[in-house]
Structure formats: structure tokens, C-alpha cells
């Protein structure tokens, strides 16, 4: 029974670790971007294929939120790209269609496979170099995947702590601002009372 459960868990983990293929259509003279949050120092590898159309050109760019270009190529048809993230950020892969004015544009289809982190490792080469058996290779994949999951959870915990610290700091600032506002109101009310008292005394109303 334990063996069956282990095989089911192994199958599920391997299923979630598989590369996801993306397919979409790109209208003439438009661009479409794929965005994803990526941790620091993560290798990202992609493979793309673009349907051809006479007179039309498609370029791709990989950039971060500061518009730094990490990878770029013009007039693509089929190929690969890779880059390593420098910091935790939202990275986007954009495909840009360019069609001359004298050409009637048509929709082009783009197929892309993206791997990142553990998925980019060549386990076949590792198995040959270390002479690993199939089961040992699967255990190696699980070990690397587990390490990646632990790192993701550690990063999420760090971000949660940063957000909590920010919330606490904001709450303290709001509290001090509220106290300062109340003191200002009390001071203004006291000044108004004293001013009106002097005014009434001067006018001999009291």
C-alpha cells in the first residue's frame, strides 16, 4: 500500500514538473507578452516556433520591469533562447509582429516551451556521467524538485515577513499621525477658547 501511495505521489510530482507548452495567435502589427515572477539566479530556457507568412517579421524580447533587455532576436522562425534572472522580478517575453504597409497581414501562430530552474537540467547527461540507474535518476529529480520547492517556500516566508514588517511600520506611523492630529485639534480648540474669552472680556460681554 505504501509503495502504491509513493508511486502516486511520484507521478503527481513528475506531472507538475513537466514543461508546459503554450500556443497562441499573434495579430499583424501587434505584440503579445507572457509574464512570470522569477526568483533571483534562476536559469530560464525557451524554445519557440513561428508559422511563416510572406512579408511578415516577428521579433522577440525578454525584459524585466525596468525594461532591461535580457535576450532579443529579430526575424525569428524557430530557435531557442535563455537567460538568467539577476534579481527577483516579473519578467516578460514579448513577441512583436511587424508587417509593411504594402502587405496584407495575416495571423501567425506561435508555439513556445519554457523551462526554468530545475526543469532546465539535463538529467540524461547526469545519469550517463554518474552512471545512475533509472530509479536513482528519478530520486535525483525528486531531490532537486524538493530543494526548489523548499527554496520557494523560504522566499515566500521572507516576503511574508517583509510584508508584516511593512504593515507594522505603517500601523505605527498611522498611530503617531493620529495622536499628532488629536494633539493639534486639542491645541486649536484650546486656542479658540482662550481667544474668544479674551475677545468677550475686551468687549465687556463677560
Model description:
The chain folds into two domains: 19-120, Jelly Rolls, CATH 2.60.120; 133-176. 45% of the residues lie in helices and 30% in strands. The protein contains three helices and eight strands; from the N terminus they run H-E-E-E-E-E-E-E-E-H-H. It has a four-stranded antiparallel β-sheet with strand order 1-8-3-6, with no helix packed on it. The chain has a four-stranded antiparallel β-sheet with strand order 2-7-4-5, with no helix packed on it.
Which oligomeric form is depicted? Answer: single chain
Q: Estimate nothing, just give the exact number of structural domains.
A: 2
Any guess at the CATH architecture of the largest domain? Sandwich
SSE series: HEEEEEEEEHH
Unreliable residue stretches: 1-18
The CATH homologous superfamily of the largest domain is called: GOLD domain
The SS-based structural class is: alpha+beta
Mean pLDDT: 83
Biggest sheet strand line-up: 1-8-3-6
Tally of alpha and pi helices: 3
Organism: Polypedilum vanderplanki (Sleeping chironomid midge)
Transmembrane segments: 174-196
Pfam families: EMP24_GP25L
Keywords: Developmental protein, Membrane, Signal, Transmembrane, Transmembrane helix
Amino acid at each position: 500500500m505504501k509503495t502504491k501511495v509513493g508511486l502516486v505521489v511520484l507521478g503527481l510530482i513528475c506531472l507538475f514538473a513537466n514543461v508546459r507548452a503554450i500556443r497562441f495567435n499573434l495579430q499583424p502589427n501587434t505584440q503579445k507578452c507572457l509574464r512570470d515572477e522569477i526568483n533571483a539566479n534562476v536559469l530560464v530556457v525557451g524554445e519557440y516556433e513561428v508559422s511563416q507568412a510572406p512579408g511578415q517579421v516577428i521579433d522577440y524580447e525578454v525584459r524585466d520591469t525596468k525594461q532591461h533587455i535580457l535576450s532579443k532576436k529579430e526575424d525569428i522562425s524557430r530557435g531557442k533562447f535563455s537567460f538568467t534572472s539577476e534579481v527577483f522580478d516579473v519578467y516578460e517575453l514579448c513577441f512583436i509582429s511587424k508587417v509593411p504597409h504594402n502587405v496584407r497581414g495575416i495571423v501567425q501562430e506561435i508555439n513556445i516551451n519554457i523551462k526554468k530552474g530545475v526543469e532546465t537540467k539535463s538529467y540524461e547527461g547526469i545519469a550517463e556521467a554518474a552512471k545512475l540507474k533509472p530509479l536513482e535518476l528519478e530520486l535525483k529529480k525528486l531531490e532537486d524538485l524538493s530543494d526548489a520547492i523548499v527554496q520557494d517556500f523560504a522566499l515566500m516566508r521572507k516576503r511574508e515577513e517583509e510584508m508584516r514588517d511593512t504593515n507594522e511600520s505603517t500601523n505605527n506611523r498611522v498611530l503617531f499621525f493620529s495622536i499628532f492630529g488629536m494633539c493639534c485639534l486639542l491645541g486649536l480648540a484650546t486656542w479658540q477658547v482662550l481667544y474668544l474669552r479674551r475677545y468677550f472680556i475686551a468687549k465687556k460681554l463677560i
